[in-house]
Amino acid sequence: MDFAGRKRNCVPNRMIFTNSRCIFPAGIRDGIDVVVEDGKIVDLRERTDRREKNVVDLGGNYLAPGFVDLHVHGAVGRDAMEASVEAFRVICDFHAGGGTTSLLLTTATAPIAAIVDVLNAVRNCRSSIKQIAGVHVEGPFISKNKRGAQREKFICEPTPDSIAQLLEYADVIKRVTLAPELPGAIKAIAQFHERKISVSGGHSDAWDEDARAAFAHGMRSVTHTFNCMSSARHDGIYRKAGLLEFALSEPQINCELIADGHHVSATLMKMLYRAKGAAGICLVTDAIAGAGLPEGSQVSLYGRDCIVKEGVCVLADGSALAGSASRMIDLVRTLVRGVDLPLHEAIAMATENPAREIGLETKGRLAVGTDADFAVLSQRLEVLQTFAGGEQIFSRSPNRYHT
After folding, report:
1. HSE of 179 in the Cβ direction (CA atoms, 13 Å)?
2. Which of 96, 296, 377, 402 has the smallest set of CB atoms within 10 Å of its CB?
3. What SS3 class is residue 111?
4. Helix, coil or strand: residue 62
5. If you average pLDDT over residues 317-321, what whole number do you get?
6. One-letter-per-residue 3-state SS of 331-378
7. Spans of all domains in the chain
8. Distance from the Cα of residue 355 to its chain's centroid
9. Residue 314 and residue 303: Cα distance in Å, rounded?
């Protein structure tokens, strides 16, 4: 067993997950057996009492699809910008303990060469680490006015050369965050969109017309909604929308949400839910290296000194939030307990919606033909077990197999 309880046992070709409450986008159902063969769901059937081999009794707990996190910088003192397999494994193992079975390792604003190092490292190792779905390139094409914890010295405009370098890794990059108001951004958005890379507006001081132009060329989401983005303001004597209002008003825009209880208040989360509905929101942790470390721990976000303070990561000087210290299950709990959303809708925001956003067709759902990626949750919404492709990658307790 390694970090976070990962077990490397031989996985049976056929497994039956029984005695659970299955969470679907439309609601929660009891009495369903989930039959898995070779890492895929092959049947969802009414529960049966007949004796079979390799039955996993889930003890009446919830069975959810494995969580899909589009925005993960790090955990437990490690950062994706290290571009090392060891760091990637530590990050993935920590987040497996929060129910995450697919994630995008996320870069920071940095020189293109440093970002390329991460892309190369992911390309070379992603087949050996099941949870890595690709990379989210956040920056360096962002607004200096909305940089948050990103380093100003590396912020730049997208150029034909820099975009060409990134597009050499279109097989690895699944998502890009950029500010649509920058010179050259609209052309870059169109190029990324053409290569089927999800484009998200973020760290942006855009006006309404900038956002609309970006949408027309392929932008279909925004990054960490309410954080580091423009909102309504005066243009002379007229009041005009920013990126936030455009995102709230456009049905085809999907909104990232860091529902850790720190980045966005309960009232704002309720407002987002009323505007977008459950189908228009993707939960993301935006976790940095401080996630999983105790209060007061000091970490770095690509050269920015940060500290874990009261359950969130902040710049050491206290001037800005630097990212979360959370796992996905923490966000789900916040929505259910603090915002009073139905559990099945909160789960959809952590599974089906993000999987759809980056084209992971076999992830994020309990359905025949999808991957056997599961998070087993207690009635108190604690992660008890996590499975990726039918393999247990996290457990708080011993397996319960009937053989």
Report:
1. 26
2. 296
3. coil
4. strand
5. 96
6. HHHHHHHHCCCCHHHHHHHHCHHHHHHCCCCCCCCCCCCCECCEEEEC
7. 3-64+365-402, 67-357
8. 9
9. 13
**Entry pTM:** 0.95
The one-letter amino acid at 310: E
Average pLDDT estimate for 332-352 = 98
pLDDT of residue 395: 96
The candidate with the shortest Cα–Cα distance to 264, out of 189, 324, 214, 174, is 324
| φ, ψ at 361 (rounded to 5°) | -70, -25
Encoded amino acid at 206, one letter: A
Mean pLDDT on 99-105: 98
The SS3 of residue 296 is: coil
| CATH class of the domain comprising 3-64+365-402 | mainly beta
What letters, b where the CB count within 10 A reaches 16 and e where it falls short, cover 304-326? bebbbbeebbbbeeeeebbbbbb
Q: At 197, which amino acid appears?
A: I
How confident is the model over 358-378, as pLDDT tens digits? 999 999 999 999 999 999 999
Token pair in block for residue 361:
């067709």
Distances (CA, A) of 170 to 70, 120, 166, 173, 377: 16, 11, 7, 5, 35
Residues 6+ apart with CB under 8 A from 263: 224, 226, 227, 286, 312, 321, 324
Q: What is the mean pLDDT of residues 193-201?
A: 98
What are phi and psi for residue 60, nearest 5 degrees?
80, 10
Q: Whole-angstrom Cα distance, residue 99 to residue 241?
A: 37
Cis bond leading into 140, ω under 30°?
Answer: yes
Q: What are residue 257's DSSP bridge partners?
A: 283
Kindly write down the DSSP assignment for every residue of 218-232, as one continuous string.
Answer: T--EESSTTSSB---
Question: Which residue type does 251 have?
Answer: P
Q: Which fold has domain 67-357?
A: TIM Barrel (3.20.20)
Name the 3-class secondary structure at 399: coil
Write down the mean pLDDT value for the chain.
95
Neighbours of 182 (CB within 10 A): 20
Q: Would the pLDDT of 2 be above 80?
A: no
- Answer yes or no: are the C-beta atoms of 331 and 341 closer than 8 Å: no
